[in-house]
């Protein structure tokens, strides 16, 4: 066994003795037994340089003591810290992987429910009983048309009556829609308006934009879409009795997106389902047209030409109600419009901004946790405009 402990080339005496010391410490040899061999390895046949076992033993003991007092604890501490860091990193990766797996499974479950619900809604659209066409109660060849805004219907949302705001639910929403219809008819009769341009300006459903809304909403998403589609279809159908032609188009609101704001594409919203439902419901009414639906830049921007004037319709969540907002929207669309229609802020207003008529429609809803936090208090109202060949002839903030 001793012959296997050979002093390596370029190995110093101290390095060699350290290895010998490890062999002695392991119990394989004693210093008395191994010292003659050490002498031969270090000095060969020159016996004048041979040393006794104590010389080697003490040298190794001194080195071992120095190592234990200085380097051993230091290395153990550094190694321990390194191991702890690796364990923390491994634990963090395990947690991250578990969270990602949980989120993926959650997304798959949500997507499965959405797909199932959308398939159900498609069946409802296909099987819906359409309205039958009727002759208008009064026809006009007047010199003006009406722009009728429907913004922030928020069907499915619910709030209780307080000293500050009235309550809101689906029955109140329908009653306010009836009130709106009657007031639009009065305006049309007063001005002898020829056609109506109905703009759905987003947030027709309350959706599930926030967790607090999902808890507070009385209706699930599909129920909201179906009932909102029925309500607005009825409104359009009744209008068709009062105008030569009713033109309908709509844009997406922020409450209809199907995921978190940063996780969804701009066109991942459910507003198109409402338009499709309405088209099926109103397909037999000859004086209702959805032709402007084909002119959208994307689901959030709609166009219409009314008596020679170009109009842009948006919800308002992407667009500032300012000259800067007008400029950015015009640049994106590639032209400066005569007018812009929007909703979103829950208050009705009409301004001339940088030469562009900027009309903001209000809301049917009142109250709610989010509305209160954002200070969006305003009496339920919608915007109606009378337009002729020269542009806006009259503006009506219709209170509901």
What this model shows, in words?
The protein is an alpha/beta fold. The protein has 2 domains: 1-127, no CATH class; 136-399, Metallo-dependent phosphatases (Purple Acid Phosphatase, chain A, domain 2), CATH 3.60.21. It is 44% helix and 16% strand. The protein has a 6-stranded mixed beta sheet. Helix 7 links the parallel strand 3 and strand 4 (288-289). Helix 1 (13-25) crosses helix 3 (53-127), helix 3 runs parallel beside helix 6 (221-239) and helix 6 (221-239) crosses helix 7. The protein is rod-shaped, with a radius of gyration of 40 Å.
List the helices and strands and how they pair.
Elements: H1 13-25, H2 31-43, H3 53-127, E1 145-150, H4 170-191, E2 195-200, H5 211-216, H6 221-239, E3 245-250, H7 271-281, E4 288-289, E5 301-306, E6 309-314, H8 323-333, E7 339-342, E8 349-353, E9 356-360, H9 369-373, E10 381-388, E11 391-399
Parallel strand pairs: 1-2, 2-3, 3-4, 6-7, 7-9
Antiparallel strand pairs: 1-10, 5-6, 8-9, 10-11
Q: Could you say what the CATH topology of the largest domain is called?
A: Purple Acid Phosphatase, chain A, domain 2
Rg from alpha-carbon coordinates: 40 Å
What general form does the structure show? rod-shaped
Query: What is the CATH architecture annotation of the largest domain?
Result: 4-Layer Sandwich
Which strands sit side by side, in order, in the main sheet? 4-3-2-1-10-11
Report mean pLDDT, rounded to a whole number.
Answer: 82
CATH class categorisation of the largest domain: Alpha Beta
| Count of individual beta strands | 11
- Report on the biggest sheet: 6 strands, mixed
Helix content: 40-55%
- Structural class by SSE content: alpha/beta
Number of domains: 2
Distance separating the two termini: 104 Å
CATH fourth-tier homologous superfamily of the largest domain: Metallo-dependent phosphatases
Q: In what range is the share of β-strand residues?
A: 15-25%
Low-confidence stretches: 209-218, 261-266
Order of SSEs, N→C?
Answer: HHHEHEHHEHEEEHEEEHEE
Total DSSP helices: 9
